[in-house]
Design goal:
Layout: H1 5-27, H2 37-59, E1 67-71, H3 75-81, H4 86-107, E2 111-115, H5 126-146, H6 148-153, E3 156-160, H7 168-181, E4 188-192, H8 197-213, H9 224-229, E5 240-243, E6 263-266, H10 276-296
Parallel strand pairs: 1-2, 1-5, 2-4, 3-4, 5-6
Length: about 300
Amino acid sequence: MGVDVRSWYAWVAVLATLITYIVVSGLRKPVSFLPLHTPCQQLLNYVSQTTRSILVRILRQGHIPAHISFIMDGNRRYARMRHRAATSGHISGFDNLTRVLDWCNALGITHVSVFAFAINNFNRSPSEVEALMDLATNKLRELATKSKLVKQHNVRICVVGNRSLLSKEVQEAAEFAEEETKNNTGMRLNICFPYSATDEISFAVQRVAQDVQAHELRVDEVDERVVADRLRIKSPDPDILVRTSGQVRFSNYMLWQSAKRTHIQFIDVFWPDFSFFHMFCILISWQLSYGQIRQRNA
């Protein structure tokens, strides 16, 4: 059996670029005691951005998922390991979300969903819940009005969940973010907040029952598609679902949408530490499995 030398060269080039990115990313930590600290950091930033751009181009040679979904887990443990308040972990998590969204946009992914707050998170301490609600209120408005990504790339923000559980202030922030971006035609960002899959399915079933009662739908017309059309998340089923922090469970997230063909990845890293390296590996894994996934669901 012959060996395609060009394919070997391509894989060597990918590996070399990936190693460069990993090494440079590790060196980008502040080293202020070194001479020429600022120029060195600028050079490392440039090399990191360049290698990341090369890796994005490599990924775009293959299939790109239309929808990727994230369970952003590990913010509190991230903060705890650094002896910080839980709120600081959530802030770090939001900062990393903006980076992840930037990578998704560069890759051409058109739908991104994030599990921002579960309905059962209301059972946490009142102080933490209050801090999370304040953070959500501020960040939703910030995303809609100040985010460079949203403005430059026409990102549409959709807050998905049972809003009746939110305070008036948070509801207004969610409505503001959606209204400000409703005409944007770029990537759709579904912020699931507050959300649970069982609550979403119950909501869809209630709407089906209401339509039947109103004689807008016959009982014999009710099928999977009818229920799916009434779910809160208005995006195609996710191609990839990623959960960070090492936990191997769905936590009642997008159960209906992930049941058929979603490529599931559990990553043993806290969400604030989720990097482009992890993203690259997940997408390569999905691309290598693409044919089998499609064949299985044909």
